Task: structure prediction
Amino acid sequence: MTKPGLLIVFSGPSGAGKDTVLKRFLDENPDCALSVSATTRAPREGEVDGENYFFITRERFGELTAMGEMLEYAYYNGNYYGTPKDMVEEQRARGKNVILEIEVQGALKIKEMGIDAVFIFLMPPSWKTLKQRLANRNTDSPWNVAERLNIAVTEMESAHLYDYIVVNDDLDACTAQMKAVVAAAQCRAEYCRELVEEVLRDAQTIHVSDN
Ligand code: 5GP
Result:
């Protein structure tokens, strides 16, 4: 039986560098896969439907949530974002560690539901860096940048509720830390419980003299 993959919840304020860190991490860790969310936000330049997000209407989003098709969802900065259940379940069943790149409200919903997951929060090295990164992005209006900075403060106030905080100062170091966190999560007693139970079951049926 394939051991189900981990569910990894990855959050951080807009501008912390989540996409860059994840891209590098996924390139180096083929046993992990990124879940593709659904959103009602319009695609940004270069974004591809089905790759970056499933871009859907509010009506469709409402239908999917009503049918219980979303693992979690949240309203963020004027739009809905949600994690379709099917892809996550299918990938985990095949042994892939699935990463949800989601904002804090959705992450906390997963925690409240008691779903076993590893919660990682990506921090910028400083407030100044975060502001600069957002201002340099040129994908949002100044109003939107200010709004995202306000949200960033609220999100960072919840960082202590996560299991791990990784700082995105140096990309190499940050990716190595992510790898270490995932390796540690795979050694958690809860995650390895089935193996321990299997060995103990065998201990009762296979005698010391058996080969
Ligand atoms: P953006 O519009 O910049 O792509 O994403 C805005 C925020 O929505 C980011 O913090 C991102 O992590 C979050 N987000 C993306 N997909 C999901 C999702 O499926 N659920 C939730 N709760 N947040 C999401």
In short: The helical segments are 18-28, 58-66, 85-93, 104-112, 127-136, 142-156, 171-186, 193-205. The beta strands are 7-11, 32-34, 38-39, 54-55, 70-76, 79-84, 97-101, 118-123, 164-167. The two ends are 23 Å apart (CA to CA).
